[in-house]
Amino acid sequence: MSETMKIINKGVEPNRLGVFKAANPDALWEKDKKNKELIGETFRCCSARYQETQQQLRTEQGNLCAYCEQDLLSGTNGALDDCRIEHFHPKSKRELGEPNWGLEWDNLLAVCCGGNQSKVVEPELRFDTDRRNYSCDVPKDDKILDTIIFNPLNLPHPNIWKFSRTTGQMDVNESACGVQGLDVEMARQTIEELNLNSPRLMRARKVILEDLNRRITERVGRGLSIEQARSSLAASVLRKNRAGDWPSFFSATRSYLGRSAEAVLTQPL
Fold this sequence. Notes:
Elements: H1 15-23, H2 47-60, E1 84-87, E2 108-111, H3 123-126, H4 137-140, E3 161-163, E4 170-172, H5 174-180, H6 184-193, H7 199-221, H8 226-237, H9 250-265
Helix pairs in contact: 7-8, 8-9
């Protein structure tokens, strides 16, 4: 498989996380606000430990939110990062004999703030005053959805999503799910439970897809066929940049460019 294929490849857990977990296997992720009597060091007590873990997650994910695939922007001039660490299995839901989900490396993901941070970078695009429009880890909250939605770490190489250029809406590619033997209803629940069709995300996707359409039109205007224009564009956008980041809303771009995208993503290095 080409290294240009977008997939989250979990590496070795960050050093500070590993050292902390070895010394404090039952430690909490952060202080329990409801039970202030609990004592002991928590993972979040050390900002360097948190930042190292977050940065490795961002690197492994190509700096995209594990759920909506919006790029994870770093804050400047006092604005907050549009990024935080998410636990796929809720960190507070630990049954007897289960791992400490708060410190389990394979349970950690980097996600955007889901629209609920007013002081986030680019708030005019990334903050929403309507709670019903929050997405990603915000509506997921501490619900156990392990068997209800897809874990981003387990998504297949083929694209199982499709998108509307005119609306930015995300939907399930049922035929692709069928070929992969994936549960279509689980795919639908992934969109619904994470609110991946919130108006904020649909607007952002629509901007990306309209720009792709504009760039294809420009290429056709210069004498390329539509197929040549799509292939040329796919080769230029479906790759990591110098910082190692994938393009924002990768799967939407991939869906729009269709066979040209797949030709680029499956070509050998």
